[in-house]
Design brief:
Number of helices: 10
Radius of gyration: 24 Å
Largest sheet: 6 strands, mixed
Structural class: alpha/beta
Distance between the termini: 43 Å
Shape: elongated
Helix content: 40-55%
């Protein structure tokens, strides 16, 4: 109760969107949740159990940007900032390294997860994803390779989890990759030498939608603004084997409380706007400030400012 009260106070006095985004990134940094995302979006893991991905293949200690670093089942570590000469700074939501099995043994991948609430922020998100992937490749210079030792470049994945998308895009997963096309002749290059980046767009729907893949079902439930915390935690545990640890429980409850707080603020704002509109009409009709304030249930100062 004390925690809920403190959160409510914070909601009332701060910008909601950054706070909601931070909680979302905290939840997505859970190792088992990341493992489900990797299994559903990265071909290298499609035949591997999520527990094995979480415990064996997620490498290093990446952490979500803009929030305090937690311990336990949440991942931490690799910097979320990428500052390139004359290229500006990128702050990734989540970025980390992972190992993956291949025909030549274990390989290392760089993975970036982005949570996006706007499907159309004024530019194509796919282009932004390609830019992020390119920066993750160029950013390896000086750490993973130097001079002309390009064979050491690691493959990168930029995975975008998009909410509030048009109906036709809901519950779909699409990837964009570098492929080989022979225009003349039959020259063949090893796939590992050109298949170096992949942008994956995950367009979410709603928790109660039918015919969802496992990944979409999990993400739609986790990030839903309609489903209560208790139901979320039960589904995550029973269907996806994601244990309700202290960090996860706290994150889910905070997200649900914040969603409710945002909704309540929206309702109150709508009521206040409605009262102000009524007050304006009454003033235009010739009613006195005092009468309008009493009828519209507004302060005298508020009504006075409408004149």
């Amino acid at each position: 109760m004390k925690q809920d009260t403190r959160l409510k106070t914070t909601i009332e006095s701060s910008d909601d969107k950054p706070m909601y985004d931070d909680i979302c990134k905290q939840l997505l940094s859970n190792k088992m949740i990341l493992a489900w995302i990797m299994k559903g979006c990265v071909p290298e893991y499609q035949d591997i159990e999520v527990e094995e991905i979480a415990n064996k293949y997620i490498e290093g200690h990446p952490y979500p940007s803009s929030i305090s670093v937690l311990t336990g089942e949440t991942i931490h570590g690799m910097t979320t900032e990428d500052i390139g000469l004359n290229e500006g700074k990128i702050v990734y939501d989540i970025r980390y390294r992972a190992l993956a099995p291949s025909d030549d043994g274990l390989i290392e991948l760089l993975v970036n997860i982005e949570a996006q609430n706007q499907h159309n922020p004024g530019y194509p998100l796919v282009k932004r994803g390609i830019y992020y992937s390119s920066r993750m490749i160029s950013g390896q210079y000086g750490s993973d390779f130097d001079k002309s030792d390009y064979k050491k470049i690691k493959k990168v994945y930029s995975i975008w989890l998009c909410r509030n998308v048009p109906k036709k895009l809901e519950n779909s997963i699409t990837s964009y990759n570098i492929t080989e096309t022979n225009h003349v002749g039959h020259a063949v290059e090893k796939r590992v030498n050109y298949d170096l980046m992949s942008v994956v767009m995950v367009y979410l729907g709603h928790a109660k939608d039918e015919h969802q893949s496992d990944l979409l079902r999990m993400l739609n439930m986790l990030l839903s603004e309609e489903v209560k915390a208790k139901e979320k935690l039960e589904v995550l545990s029973n269907e996806f084997r994601i244990l309700a640890t202290k960090n996860l429980e706290e994150g889910v409850h905070n997200m649900c409380n914040l969603s409710q707080g945002i909704e309540d603020k929206g309702i109150r704002k709508g009521i206040e706007q409605g009262r102000a509109e009524i007050a304006t009409n009454l003033l235009q009709a010739g009613m006195s400030v005092e009468e309008v304030a009493k009828y519209a249930k507004l302060s005298l100062d508020t009504v006075q400012n409408l004149i």
